[in-house]
Amino acid sequence: MKRLLVILVFFSVSTSGWAKCVEADRIARTKDMLTAISTYESCAIQYNDDVSQALLAPIYEEGRYGVARNLQRALLFYHLSAENGNAVSQTALAELLMRLDENEEGRAEIRKYIRKINVAGKTTGGRVSADILHPYALLALAAEKQAAKWYYPSDVLSSPKAAHLFRSYQIEPDKQKEVMRLATAWKNRKLLAAAKEVLSADEYQRFYDELYPAVGRPDAFSRSQTLQRLEEQMKIYRTKAER
């Protein structure tokens, strides 16, 4: 098993967490897959590493390396990685949801998973929301241009399949508007989370007030300037985190 990318996940993985993820990679290269999978799970859950999550999801979906097939855990790890903005996982989760929706047994798995997410948020540390569990919304997010994703936690921002699947997906116009609303709400959540990560409390409040004024709406130019300032501050933050 090879890691998808060698990255520093500056939003979510501490120094000790990054070391744990590198250790999982080393163990995987020795072919001790069960130990590697256990270590990847520590990375995925404890340190919220989207690459580890993306590696684990298909293992549980297909039952690889002697691990029992478990669709609930597959959904969880795809979902966690997708919540981090990982475009490959967003696409894979959309495809899995579409396959499960083809029969009642699969739909029951989806309902079971959503119930777990809704009533046991502590399982994921409050990092996920069932709102985004719609194939169209996931594909819309994955298909967006990388330049628009500068505030995402993940560095895996491109999925070659996403745009094609997004265009081929059939959905009624009224439902399309609703799931696109969910996708937009998801992006807003991630943007505000990124702002909180890099701004002081006072700076964040000014940013929020500029972007979401209590009265009226900011004009396009003002919004663009506000986002550009945040992007510049994030670049500085990332540069420091990589040192």
Describe the 3D structure.
The protein has a domain of 158 residues. The longest helix is centred in the last third of the chain and has 26 residues. With 243 residues, the protein is mainly α.
SS elements, strand count:
0
The helicity comes to 55-70%
Low-confidence stretches: 1-15
**End-to-end gap:** 28 Å
Described by strand count, sense and barrel closure, the largest sheet is: none
Order of helices and strands: HHHHHHHHHHH
Structural class: mainly alpha
What is the number of helices?
11
Structural shape: globular
- What fraction of the residues are assigned to beta strands by DSSP? under 5%
Task: Please tell me how large the radius of gyration is.
Answer: 19 Å
How are the secondary structure elements laid out?
Layout: H1 15-29, H2 33-46, H3 50-62, H4 71-83, H5 87-100, H6 104-119, H7 135-143, H8 162-168, H9 173-198, H10 201-211, H11 220-241
Helix pairs in contact: 1-2, 2-3, 3-4, 4-5, 4-6, 5-7, 7-8, 7-9
Features:
mainly alpha, 11 helices
Question: Concise description?
Answer:
The chain is mainly α. 66% of the residues lie in helices and 0% in strands.
